[in-house]
């Protein structure tokens, strides 16, 4: 498949968890705007400092900041045959900006109910060394890594509620936008990690 693939869905739907499998299947590099923003925050850059307040509050970072970041990333050599976008676009203006610099071949929408989202986010733990994503109950870490796992600052119940509101108000309308273009592939995310991965592989191999 030439062009980029968009991984779409509410926060905590399992986009990052499935991204590794899709990059192996397609060879496309994984581009996560959340990871790029967290790297900017950790580096203390001007962009990171500006983004942090929004991220901590569970609000979307303004389009102007995020569009600049992604347009720059898509100019790198490894993006020439398309990338796997995780967490972008999240607004219609972001999707419009994307369509000017890249061809989107498929949008995989992982659909998960709000109650399950809160449980997934509150139990999420990250491995700062490998980027591995775990869950205290649904994907427990092996004992040798459990000591170094961290919980993201925004992975608490209050912030999650704000992130879900932002998702429903600003991001969910994009599903219809992409459906009208014939690009949306809906995947039931209320299933095990493996089942979701297999459903995505099946849908993509039909589209590849
Ligand atoms: P996103 O990238 O969409 O924000 P993640 O991939 O980080 O979501 O997953 C959020 C949390 O839910 C993680 O703790 C992950 O281990 C867990 N998770 C992911 N997929 C599933 C699933 N199908 N069933 C149960 N838990 C899952
Ligand atoms: P999750 O999938 O768990 O919501 P992400 O790591 O994708 O988390 O994003 C974390 C935060 O970074 C978001 O709550 C938001 O503040 C910001 N962010 C990431 N991607 C975007 C984007 N495309 N547009 C606006 N804000 C973004």
UniProtKB/TrEMBL annotation:
Assembly and partners are described as: Monomer.
The Gene Ontology biological process terms listed for this entry are:
AMP salvage
Query: For this protein, what reaction is catalysed?
Result: AMP + ATP = 2 ADP
Per the UniProt entry, the signal peptide is none
Q: What is known of its domains?
A: Consists of three domains, a large central CORE domain and two small peripheral domains, NMPbind and LID, which undergo movements during catalysis. The LID domain closes over the site of phosphoryl transfer upon ATP binding. Assembling and dissambling the active center during each catalytic cycle provides an effective means to prevent ATP hydrolysis.
Family under the similarity heading = Belongs to the adenylate kinase family.
GO annotation, cellular component aspect? cytoplasm
Q: Where is this region: NMP?
A: 32-61
Keyword set, alphabetical order: ATP-binding, Cytoplasm, Kinase, Nucleotide biosynthesis, Nucleotide-binding, Transferase
Q: What is this protein called?
A: Adenylate kinase
**Subcellular localization, as worded in the UniProt entry:** Cytoplasm
Q: Where along this sequence does the record place binding of AMP?
A: 33, 38, 59-61, 87-90, 94, 152, 163
Species whose genome carries this gene: uncultured marine group II/III euryarchaeote SAT1000_51_E07
The answer, when asked if Transcription regulation is one of the entry's keywords, is no
Q: What is the superkingdom listed in this entry's lineage? A: Archaea
Question: Transmembrane region positions?
Answer: none
> Species lineage, top-down?
Archaea, Methanobacteriati, Methanobacteriota, environmental samples
């Amino acid at each position: 498949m030439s062009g980029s693939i968009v991984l779409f869905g509410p926060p905590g739907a399992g986009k990052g968890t499935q991204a590794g499998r899709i990059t192996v299947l397609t060879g496309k590099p994984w581009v996560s705007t959340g990871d790029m923003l967290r790297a900017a925050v950790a580096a203390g850059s001007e962009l990171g400092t500006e983004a942090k307040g929004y991220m901590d509050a569970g609000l979307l970072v303004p389009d102007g900041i995020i569009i600049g970041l992604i347009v720059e990333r898509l100019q790198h050599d490894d993006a020439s045959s398309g990338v796997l976008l995780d967490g972008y676009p999240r607004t219609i203006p972001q999707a419009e900006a994307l369509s000017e610099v890249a061809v989107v071949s498929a949008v995989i929408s992982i659909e998960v109910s709000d109650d399950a989202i809160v449980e997934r986010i509150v139990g999420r733990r990250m491995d700062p060394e490998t980027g591995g994503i775990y869950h205290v109950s649904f994907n427990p870490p092996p004992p040798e890594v459990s000591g170094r796992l961290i919980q993201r600052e925004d992975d608490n119940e209050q912030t999650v509620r704000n992130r879900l509101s932002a998702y429903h108000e600003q991001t969910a309308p994009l599903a219809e936008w992409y459906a009208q273009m014939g690009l949306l592939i809906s995947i039931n995310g209320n299933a095990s990690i493996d089942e979701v991965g297999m459903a995505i592989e099946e849908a993509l191999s039909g589209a590849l």
